[in-house]
Amino acid sequence: MIVDAILRSKGRDVITIREMATLEEAARLLDSHAIGALLVEDGAGRPIAVLSERDLVREMALHGAACLQRPVAQALTQAFVVAGRDIQLNALMVLMTERRVRHVPILEGEQLLGIISIGDVVKAKIADMEAETAALQAYIRS
């Protein structure tokens, strides 16, 4: 299965935030959309990073509640991993595991197509395994 199929089924909506927005704004967006990560854009609207709940927790642990007034840019980690729409699901799993990321923006050139989370990957793998199991059971019965 290629990642583009996942994007078609889950949708391509991505919630973004500018790098100079505050961490408080980021926390409010995460909460209001019930999501685990935001795509961070630079001043020109280009994707530059992913800000996750984990990043917010790290900032709170290091700097306390005062961190909520800091810009998103100060909380970003170095790991910004992107993939193309044609990447195979297994290759994406390896990439996410090796780079220790849970959210990967999918780009075509500079155009953002969507974002895939580890939860999306797990759901797709389960669906693949269920389809394979059903096909094998049908084959055995015939």
Question: How much β-strand is present in the residues?
Answer: 15-25%
- What is the CA-CA span between the terminal residues? 26 Å
How many domain regions?
Answer: 1
Whole-number mean pLDDT: 93
Helicity level, as a percent range? 40-55%
* Name of the top-level CATH class: Alpha Beta
Kindly report the spatial arrangement of strands forming the biggest sheet.
1-2-3
Low-confidence stretches: none
Major sheet size, sense and barrel closure? 3 strands, mixed
Protein name: Putative signal-transduction protein with CBS domains
Keywords: CBS domain
Pfam families: CBS (PF00571)
Domain CBS: 8-67, 76-132
What's this, in brief?
InterPro entries: CBS_dom (IPR000644), CBS_dom_sf (IPR046342), CBSX3_CBS_dom (IPR044725), Diverse_CBS-Domain (IPR051257). 46% of the residues lie in helices and 20% in strands.
Descriptive keywords:
single chain, 142 residues, alpha/beta, CBS-domain, 3-stranded mixed sheet, 5 helices, 6 strands, 46% helix, 20% strand, elongated
Could you please describe the fold and organization of this structure?
- This is Putative signal-transduction protein with CBS domains.
- Keywords: CBS domain.
- This protein has 142 residues and is of the alpha/beta class.
- It has a single domain, classed as CBS-domain.
- The protein is built from 5 helices and 6 strands, in the order αβαββαβαββα.
- It has helices spanning 3-10, 23-33, 53-63, 89-99, 118-141, and strands spanning 16-18, 37-41, 47-52, 83-84, 103-108, 111-117.
- The strands form 2 sheets. Strands 1-2-3 form a 3-stranded mixed β-sheet. The chain has a 3-stranded mixed β-sheet with strand order 4-5-6.
- Strand 5 (103-108) and strand 6 form a beta hairpin.
- It is elongated.
- The relative contact order is 0.19.
